[in-house]
Amino acid sequence: MIGLCDEVLGEQAIRQHRFPFLTGDPGATGRRSPLPVDAFYPARKLVIEFHEIQHSQPVAHFDKRQTVSGVSRGEQRRHYDELRRKVLPQHGIDIVVFDYSEFEHTTAGRLRRTSRDRQIIAERLHCYAKPRNGD
């Protein structure tokens, strides 16, 4: 999905970028680690997040361990998603969130990467795309 965003925007994002001002809950040592974002386009001050199925439904593979803070992984994931939506704009960074349900995918949840998927991304990111010659 991020690859399709790269195509639409005409540049490659920094994957799993971490901002020092966007930190998670304290870990076992009490230290707060910076949270990753799926994709960051620095020149556009844009973050893209892709919410796979585990962002909206329990998935045993992702939710089996309890967090250090004592909340479920799903609850922590929702909290961190909300934190990204709140904190990034406070630092002048736009965030666009895509949900897996917007795209065609296999029963296993893998994106099919259809022309419709690319169109959805292009429509949502049109204001961030660089103008082409003659536009």
Compact overview of the structure:
This is DUF559 domain-containing protein. It comes from Rhizorhabdus dicambivorans. The chain is of the alpha+beta class.
Q: What topology, given as strand order, has the largest sheet? A: 1-2-3-4
Mean pLDDT comes to: 83
Q: What structural category characterises the helix and strand content?
A: alpha+beta
Tell me the number of structural domains.
Answer: 1
Total strand segments: 4
Calculate Rg over CA atoms. 16 Å
Q: Which spans have pLDDT < 50 for at least 5 consecutive residues? A: none
Query: What series of H and E elements makes up the topology?
Result: HEEEHHEH
Helix/strand layout:
Layout: H1 2-9, E1 14-26, E2 32-41, E3 46-51, H2 60-63, H3 73-90, E4 94-99, H4 115-125
Parallel strand pairs: 3-4
Antiparallel strand pairs: 1-2, 2-3
Helix pairs in contact: 1-4
Descriptive overview:
By secondary structure, the protein is an alpha+beta fold. The protein has a single domain (2-26, 33-125), classed as Endonuclease, Chain A (3-Layer(aba) Sandwich). The protein is 30% helix and 26% strand. It has helices at 2-9, 60-63, 73-90, 115-125; strands spanning 14-26, 32-41, 46-51, 94-99. It has a four-stranded mixed β-sheet, sandwiched between helices. Helix 1 crosses helix 4. The chain is globular, with a radius of gyration of 16 Å. It comes from Rhizorhabdus dicambivorans.
Features:
135 residues; alpha+beta; 4-stranded mixed β-sheet; Endonuclease, Chain A
